[in-house]
Specification:
Helix content: 10-25%
Number of helices: 3
CATH class: Alpha Beta
CATH topology: Thiol Ester Dehydrase, Chain A
Number of domains: 1
CATH superfamily: Hotdog Thioesterase
Number of strands: 6
Radius of gyration: 16 Å
Strand order of the largest sheet: 1-2-4-5-6-3
Largest sheet: 6 strands, antiparallel
Oligomer: single chain
């Protein structure tokens, strides 16, 4: 049995999961919002968040900023799944339906196109019954550095 495992010793799915675990440990905003990671694979992330009472705005629905946070987080975990530090270059969101306190939401981000430094990712936010609440598109830019330092 090997004692010292390196990044070269793990497959792409394991690398994506290790990147997600490493980021999540330092991602205090996401932890505070109660966002949890379900599945992270290369170019893909599925996250969950329950809308709490303190996330509801003056119209008694989830504040759009929390929906954006959820989608942007799924995007971040998907595009950083290759162990290359990658930032959002730009992104936008279309709100389709409102979410209410107590509802569990799911965000799924998927890679559309990844080049040498840039990428395009689409994310959807839905209720657990599959009804879509928002569409998000993020464009990424890879910078120097690795998510996991050996």
């Amino acid at each position: 049995m090997k004692e010292n495992i390196t990044m070269n010793d793990i497959n792409a799915d394991e690398l994506a999961q290790a990147c997600a675990a490493s980021m999540y440990k330092r991602d205090f905003a996401v932890q505070k919002a109660g966002i949890t990671l379900d599945i992270v694979k290369p170019g893909y992330a599925c996250l969950e968040m329950e809308v709490r009472e303190d996330m509801v705005n003056g119209h008694n629905v989830c504040h759009g900023g929390y929906l954006f946070l959820l989608a942007d987080t799924a995007f971040a975990y998907a595009c950083n799944s290759y162990n290359k530090v990658t930032y959002a270059q730009s992104c936008d969101i279309d709100f389709i339906e409102a979410a209410k306190s107590g509802e569990k939401l799911i965000a799924v981000a998927e890679e559309c196109k990844r080049g040498r430094r840039t990428g395009v990712y689409d994310a959807t936010i839905s209720r657990v019954d599959g009804e879509i609440l928002a569409y998000f598109r993020g464009r990424s830019y890879q910078v120097k550095g690795e998510v996991i330092q050996e």
